[in-house]
Design brief:
about 140 residues; alpha+beta; Thrombin, subunit H; three-stranded antiparallel beta sheet; about 15% helix
Length: about 140
């Protein structure tokens, strides 16, 4: 009777461990090339914005701002040539640069400037003013 109970407990223990053990499931991976572009500089590090519309590429002495929508480098941010690591902090919308050789940390705030076409629209003040305030008040 004790042998039967022992065999039953071993059997139940094996069954429970088999059910609770992680199962390995292998799957294929399907990849699709979205975009490939040649850069005129050697990239050191790359980060992307949270929305995926902007990719920042750290190169020696500059950060290339690549616009995914436009499919090209939209601007360049000059930085010291010592920086070799780049990180993007989405919560504050900042780029964080570090240099292992000069032991330097640099934080750059990223703000976007949007151009709004106001050609032919009524305005007050000089046409070449540095700042234009646009009021959208014709909503119906």
């Amino acid at each position: 009777m004790i042998k039967a109970a022992r065999r039953l407990s071993i059997f139940l223990l094996l069954m429970i461990s088999w059910v609770l053990a992680p199962q390995f499931i292998y799957a294929e991976i399907d990849t699709t090339l979205i975009k490939q572009t040649n850069l005129d500089v050697q990239p050191l590090d790359v980060v992307a914005s949270v929305d995926g519309k902007t990719i920042y590429v750290l190169a020696r002495g500059e950060i290339l701002v690549y616009s995914v929508d436009e499919g090209k480098v939209s601007s360049r941010i000059p930085v010291d040539k010592d920086f070799d690591k780049l990180t993007y902090a989405a919560q504050n919308n900042v780029l964080i640069l570090t240099s292992s050789s000069s032991k330097t940390l640099k934080i750059i705030q990223v703000d976007y400037i949007y151009k709004i076409a106001i050609d032919g629209l009524p305005f007050k003040g000089p046409a070449d003013a540095a700042v234009t305030i646009v009021a959208f008040d014709d909503y119906q």
